[in-house]
Amino acid sequence: MEPLTATRLQVRRKNSLKDCVAVAGPLGVTHFLILSKTDTSVYLKLMRLPGGPTLTFQINKYTLVRDVVSSLRRHRMHEQQFAHPPLLVLNSFGPQGMHVKLMATMFQNLFPSINVHKVNLNTIKRCLLINYNPDSQELDFRHYSIKVVPVGASRGMKKLLQEKFPNMSRLQDISELLATGAGLSESEAEPDGEHNIAELPQAVAGRGNMAAQQSAIRLTEIGPRMTLQLIKIQEGVGNGNVLFHSFVHKTEAELQAILAAKEEKLRLKALRQEQQALNVQRKQEQRHAHKKKSLAGMKRAHREADGDSDAEDPGAPPEAEGASRPDSEDEAEYFRQAVGKEPDEDLFPQATKKQQVGPPGKRRRVKERRPGRGGGQGSNWRPPKPQGAQAKKPKPRVRAQGRPPKRGA
Q1: Where are the alpha helices (DSSP H) in 162-208?
Q2: How does pLDDT run across 360-372, given as a tens digit for each residue?
Q3: CA-based nearest residue to 336, from 318, 322, 355
Q4: pLDDT at 282 (0 to 100)
């Protein structure tokens, strides 16, 4: 299909057919050829973009290019052949039916049209032949390379006109080569006849191919080979109504029932979409109304906080405030005497605020009180006795010998 192919287009596994159809327009792609394989057979889909139709073929037989080339004794394949599109030849596509006519039109649109009066013969290097068999309803797909050689000269003269000079070590005179073609293999002697001899309207690349001279047109198969059978024709790209099927045939009543079911499905889908649009609009209106109501409430609360009302907050009575302070101060003082450090602000807020002196942010250092120096307990302060396993048993008193014990009153 080269050179009019998107060879640089890279398709990943996560890409779908919709992604390829979306980029086909900017890239100038007009057809898709998709090969797929199942457990039963191999299929080829030919799609016309952007609106279809889609032709599905079953590949009954196929031969790869490498197999075709390896079977030939002398093959002709080089890169210059693919610089121009091939010449399309359709055979036996007569008035067999609308599906046959549609197939021919699809194949013709794959390649650019040729103006017979202005075409340059040097651009025609390949030939694509598609033959339709009405009995078996199969298509034969063949691909050939075209070679043009002059006619009327002996095999030896043709060999001299080529770039590679023949080996004449076994010849006594050059006349033997020109007259009989001695020393040439049988594969080099290709028979030419009326079936492939034509008069050239213009000069063709090659030694001896002059205008108004007879030359032989030789075809060399370069592959691939395929035997195709049309399965079905769909209206859209990969989906849509089935316009033709080779195995399934339906009556007019069944087609009308299928069409009515599809129309009903489309009607229900449109109804659901309309109902969904109304629901979305209703929810948006409710959201907008709730937003307006919330903003109005926030503005009203802000006005009341700024002092729009004439009432004043009397606050807490001074008696209750003064009564709560002594308890907090006593508890804070008890904490200092018991623990030996200043309490946290969160523990006694009223007492700690009263004890703070100096700039804010700096805490007052309180020296640790030593036992026996004030603190409200006098000089009789003793450290607390240990409890539990750490408590030591008191040592028993030993009485002095020779002295009677004292008697109490």
Answers
A1: 174-179
A2: 545 555 555 555 4
A3: 355
A4: 95
- Rounded Cα gap, residues 162 and 122, in angstroms: 18
330: left (phi over 0), alpha (psi -120 to 50) or beta: alpha
> CA 354 to CA 332: how far, in whole Å?
11
Nearest CA to 235 out of 47, 44, 15 is that of 47
CA dihedral 332, 334, 339, 340 (to 10 degrees): 80
Which two tokens mark 175? 């006349």
Task: Tell me if 49 sits within 8 A of 59, measured CB to CB.
Answer: no
Q: In degrees rounded to 5, what are phi and psi of residue 364?
A: -80, 130
Reported as type and span, the H/E element at residue 265 is: helix 252-305
Enter the tokens of residue 346. Answer: 């969160």
- 3-class SS shares of the chain: helix, strand, coil, % to 5: 35, 20, 45
- The answer to whether 346 touches 332, Cβ cutoff 8 Å, is no
| Sole residue written with tokens 């032949």 | 129
Distances in whole angstroms, Cα of residue 263 to Cα of each of 239, 256, 267, 303, 333: 16, 10, 6, 61, 90
